[in-house]
C-alpha cells in the first residue's frame, strides 16, 4: 500500500469545500498517487429546548397541570404536525384525554394514539392518516420511534426523559425528514430529577455524543436455532460449522465448550424425552459430522423460529388456589417481584406470595407501603453513559459551590452588604455555568441550581465519583443509596447488597430502585459490612444466587426455552399459548436443574437476566472504582430524607396518592429541608 502523504477532502453539501479540480482529474485518470476522501456527512440540523411550564416546587398541582397542557397546545398550534412521545401507554391515553377535555372541539378528528396495546389495524390507521396529513397531533409511547415512514412532521414533543441520548435523537429525528430541514424537539419537564437529566441529555445531543450500543453476545438460545437451521441445509463438519458461526460479531468469542453443549442438547443427549423434548439433529463424535434428524425438521424450524417471546397477562388471585380473582398484571411487572413485595391493584395493597403458571397468588390487609409502582415494568432504564454524564455534571457544580474565596474576597465580605454582593456574584456565575454547559435558558438554569444547592446545603451531592448512603428512620430503618448509574446497574447493585445483608442478618430486606439510586429497608441490617464484602470477583456468584429462585429467571427461562426450540409454539397446526408455555417451562426448569446446574439454556437465561435486564459489566466497573478509591462511599445520618432522595421515597406511594398530594408533599418537604438548613 502506498503511503498517504496528503489527504484531499471532498465535501458534498451546501457549504462544499473540495480539492482542486485538477487534482481530482489526475486522481480519476490514475496519474495521482494521492488519496482522495469524500466526506458526504449530511449532519441533520436539530433545534432542541428544555421547557418547564411553571416553577417545579412553588406551583400547585393545578397550575402545573394547566401550564403543561397550555404549553403543549401552544406548540402544537404553532406547527403543522406534531408527535408527542410519552414513556408509558397509560400516559399516552391520559395526554389525549386531557387535550380533548381542556380544548373542546380543537382536536376533534385531528388527534390519535399509537402504542403497543392497540390492535394492528388501529395502529396502521393512525400511521396512514399521519402520512396523508390528516392528523394534527399523534401521541405515542415508544412505538413510533423506529422503522416507520410517518410522513411530514415538523415538531416532536418529549414528555419527560427518554432515558438515553440515542433514543432522544431517534425520537426527535421523526421531525424534519425533508432534505436540509431542521429536526425540532422540545423536552417538557415536570420533575426536578428529569430536569437535570434532560438538560444533560440536550448537551450530549448538541455535542453529538451518543450512548454506547450494547450487543448481546454468545446467546445460546439463538445459537440453537442457527445450528438446527444449518443442519437442515446440509451435513456439516462441526469444526467448519463453529468457524462459520464465529465469523459473526455476536459469536466471535463463542467457546467450543458452549458450542458443543448446544449440539449435545439438540442431539438429545440430555435425555429430556419424558418432557417431550426430542433430538432435532444427530452428531457423530468420530467423524465430527452434524445433520438434521426427523422428517418434520424443516416444518418445525420454519414455524417456530424467531426471537420475540409471546407475552400475556398474569391473573392475580387472593389467598389459596381456589381464591377470589382480583385482576391482572403484565408479565414485565411480575418479573420485578419477589416474595413479600407489596403492590397496588384496583386501589388496594397486596403482598405477593408465589406463582403457578400464569397465576399470581397474593394476600390482602397489608399495611406496608408498596415496594413497586404499577407502571414500573413500562419504565425505560437510564443508560449508564448518560448517568455518568449526569454524575459528572453534579460534580462540576458541587466543585463550584465548594470553591473557596480569595483573601481579597474574604476581606471584602467582612461587611454584610459586601458579603451579600459576593454571594450573589457566585450564584450568578454558577447559574451562568449551568446555562452554558447544558445549553439551557435562564429559568431552567435557576431551577437546576436551586435543586443542587439545596442538596449541597442539606447533605452531600452524589456524583460520578461519590456514592452517598443516607440513613434515616421511618417505619423501618432505611438506607438510601444515591448511586447515579442508571436503573440496570442499580438493579444489580441492590440485589447483590440486599442478598448479602439478608445473609448477614438472617432476614429478608425491602428493596426499591430507580435510575438515581436504590434503598434497603429493615431493622438490624448491616449495610457497611455488606459493601465491604462485595467486589468485582464475587459479584457474578452473588447475583447468580440472588436471582436463582426469582420470578424473573423463571420467565426468562421460558423465553429462552421457546427460542431454543425446547418448547414448540407451533406443532402440526396447533399453537401453544403463553400460559401453557409458562406452565410447561416450569416442569422443564425443574427437570434440567436435576440434570445439571449448567444446562446451556438455563445458563443463557441467567446471562439474559444479568447482562440484558441488568448491567453486570458496568456494575463491575463501579465496584472497581470503589475498590481503587476512585468512587467514595459517604455515609450520612438524616432526620428527614434529602432533596435527591424524595423521588425514591415517594415512588412506592405513586399508586396511592394523587398528583395534588404528591406536589403538596414535595412542597412541604422542601420547606422542612429549608428549615433544617437555616438552623445550621
Name its key features.
disordered N terminus; 6-stranded parallel β-sheet; 5-stranded mixed β-sheet; alpha/beta; Rossmann fold; 680 residues
Write up what this structure looks like:
This protein is an alpha/beta fold. Among the domains are: 7-39, no CATH class; 45-206, Rossmann fold; 217-302, no CATH class; 313-378, no CATH class. The protein contains 24 helices and 23 strands. The strands form six sheets. Strands 3-8-7-4-6-5 form a six-stranded parallel β-sheet, sandwiched between helices. A five-stranded mixed β-sheet has the order 13-12-16-15-14. It has a five-stranded mixed β-sheet with strand order 19-20-18-17-23, with helices on one face. Helix 7 packs across helix 9. It is globular. The relative contact order is 0.09.
Which CATH C-level class of the domain at 45-206 is it?
Alpha Beta
Q: Count every helix, treating DSSP H or I runs of 4 or more residues as helices.
A: 24
Q: Give the overall form.
A: globular
* Helix content class: 40-55%
CATH topology of the domain at 45-206: Rossmann fold
Describe the structure concisely:
The chain has 680 residues and is of the alpha/beta class.
Write the layout of secondary structure elements.
Layout: E1 7-11, H1 21-29, E2 35-39, E3 45-51, H2 61-77, E4 82-85, H3 89-102, E5 111-114, H4 120-131, E6 137-140, E7 155-159, H5 165-172, E8 182-188, H6 192-206, H7 220-233, E9 236-237, H8 238-245, H9 256-266, E10 281-284, E11 289-292, H10 297-304, E12 313-318, E13 325-330, H11 331-335, E14 342-345, E15 348-356, E16 359-363, H12 384-402, H13 407-412, H14 416-438, H15 442-458, E17 466-473, E18 477-482, H16 487-505, E19 510-514, E20 517-521, H17 527-533, H18 536-547, H19 551-563, E21 570-571, E22 574-575, H20 578-595, H21 600-613, H22 616-628, E23 632-637, H23 646-651, H24 659-679
Parallel strand pairs: 1-2, 3-8, 4-6, 4-7, 5-6, 7-8, 12-16, 17-23
Antiparallel strand pairs: 9-11, 10-11, 12-13, 14-15, 15-16, 17-18, 18-20, 19-20, 21-22
Amino acid at each position: 500500500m502506498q503511503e498517504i502523504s496528503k489527504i484531499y477532502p471532498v465535501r458534498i453539501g451546501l457549504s462544499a469545500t473540495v480539492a482542486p479540480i485538477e487534482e481530482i482529474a489526475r486522481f480519476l485518470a490514475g496519474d495521482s498517487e494521492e488519496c482522495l476522501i469524500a466526506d458526504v456527512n449530511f449532519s441533520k440540523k436539530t433545534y432542541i429546548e428544555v421547557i418547564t411550564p411553571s416553577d417545579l416546587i412553588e406551583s400547585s398541582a393545578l397550575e402545573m397541570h394547566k401550564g403543561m397542557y397550555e404549553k403543549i397546545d401552544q406548540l402544537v398550534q404553532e406547527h403543522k404536525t406534531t408527535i408527542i412521545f410519552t414513556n408509558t401507554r397509560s400516559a399516552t391515553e391520559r395526554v389525549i384525554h386531557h387535550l380533548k377535555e381542556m380544548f373542546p372541539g380543537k382536536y376533534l378528528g385531528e388527534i390519535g394514539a399509537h402504542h403497543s396495546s392497540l390492535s394492528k389495524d388501529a395502529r396502521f390507521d393512525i400511521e396512514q392518516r399521519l402520512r396523508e396529513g390528516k392528523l394534527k397531533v399523534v401521541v405515542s409511547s415508544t412505538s413510533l420511534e423506529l422503522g416507520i415512514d410517518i410522513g411530514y412532521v415538523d415538531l416532536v414533543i418529549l414528555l419527560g426523559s427518554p432515558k438515553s441520548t440515542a433514543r432522544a435523537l431517534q425520537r426527535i429525528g421523526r421531525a424534519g425528514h425533508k432534505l436540509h430541514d431542521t429536526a425540532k424537539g422540545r423536552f417538557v419537564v415536570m420533575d426536578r430529577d428529569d430536569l437535570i437529566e434532560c438538560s444533560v441529555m440536550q448537551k450530549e445531543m448538541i455535542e453529538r455524543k451518543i450512548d454506547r450500543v450494547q450487543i448481546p453476545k454468545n446467546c445460546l438460545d439463538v445459537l440453537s436455532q442457527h445450528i438446527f437451521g444449518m443442519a437442515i441445509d446440509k451435513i456439516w463438519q462441526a469444526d467448519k460449522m463453529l468457524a462459520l458461526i464465529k465469523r459473526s460479531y455476536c459469536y466471535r468469542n463463542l467457546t467450543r465448550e458452549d458450542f458443543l453443549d448446544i449440539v449435545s442438547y439438540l442431539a438429545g443427549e440430555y435425555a429430556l424425552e419424558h418432557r417431550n423434548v426430542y433430538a432435532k439433529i444427530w452428531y457423530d463424535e468420530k467423524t465430527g459430522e452434524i445433520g438434521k434428524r426427523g422428517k418434520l425438521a424443516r416444518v418445525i424450524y420454519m414455524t417456530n423460529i424467531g426471537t420475540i417471546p409471546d407475552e400475556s397477562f398474569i391473573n392475580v388471585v387472593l389467598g389459596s388456589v381456589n381464591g377470589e380473582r382480583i385482576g391482572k398484571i403484565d408479565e414485565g411487572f411480575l418479573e420485578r417481584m419477589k416474595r413479600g413485595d407489596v403492590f397496588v391493584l384496583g386501589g388496594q395493597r397486596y403482598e405477593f406470595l408465589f406463582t403457578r403458571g400464569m397465576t399470581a397468588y397474593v394476600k390482602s390487609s397489608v399495611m406496608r407501603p408498596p415496594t413497586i409502582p404499577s407502571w414500573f415494568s413500562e419504565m425505560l432504564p437510564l443508560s449508564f453513559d448518560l448517568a455518568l454524564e449526569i454524575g459528572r455534571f453534579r460534580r462540576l457544580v458541587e466543585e463550584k459551590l465548594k470553591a473557596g474565596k480569595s483573601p481579597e474576597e474574604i476581606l471584602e465580605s467582612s461587611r454584610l452588604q459586601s458579603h451579600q454582593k459576593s454571594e450573589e456574584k457566585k450564584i450568578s456565575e454558577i447559574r451562568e455555568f449551568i446555562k452554558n454547559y447544558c445549553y439551557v435558558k435562564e429559568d431552567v438554569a435557576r431551577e437546576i441550581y436551586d435543586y443542587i444547592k439545596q442538596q449541597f446545603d442539606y447533605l452531600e451531592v452524589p456524583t460520578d465519583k461519590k456514592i452517598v448512603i443516607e440513613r434515616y428512620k421511618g417505619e423501618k430503618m432505611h438506607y438510601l443509596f444515591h448511586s447515579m448509574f442508571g436503573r440496570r446497574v442499580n438493579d444489580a447493585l441492590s440485589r447483590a447488597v440486599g442478598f448479602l445483608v439478608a445473609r448477614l442478618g438472617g432476614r429478608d430486606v425491602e428493596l426499591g430502585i430507580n435510575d438515581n439510586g436504590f434503598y434497603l429497608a429493615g431493622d438490624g441490617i448491616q449495610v457497611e459490612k455488606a459493601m465491604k464484602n462485595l467486589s468485582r470477583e464475587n459479584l457474578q456468584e452473588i447475583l447468580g444466587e440472588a436471582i436463582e429462585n426469582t420470578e424473573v429467571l423463571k420467565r426468562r427461562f421460558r423465553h429462552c426455552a421457546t427460542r431454543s426450540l425446547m418448547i414448540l409454539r407451533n406443532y402440526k397446526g396447533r399453537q401453544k399459548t403463553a400460559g401453557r408455555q409458562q406452565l410447561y417451562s416450569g416442569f422443564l426448569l425443574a427437570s434440567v436443574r436435576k440434570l445439571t446446574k449448567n444446562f446451556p439454556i438455563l445458563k443463557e437465561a441467567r446471562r439474559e437476566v444479568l447482562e440484558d435486564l441488568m448491567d453486570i459489566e458496568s456494575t463491575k466497573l463501579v465496584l472497581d472504582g470503589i475498590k481503587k478509591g476512585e468512587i467514595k462511599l459517604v455515609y450520612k445520618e438524616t432526620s428527614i430524607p434529602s432533596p435527591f432522595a424524595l423521588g425514591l421515597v415517594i415512588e412506592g406511594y405513586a399508586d396511592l396518592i394523587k398528583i395534588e398530594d404528591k406536589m403538596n408533599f414535595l412542597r412541604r418537604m422542601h420547606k422542612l429541608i429549608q428549615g433544617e438548613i437555616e438552623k445550621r
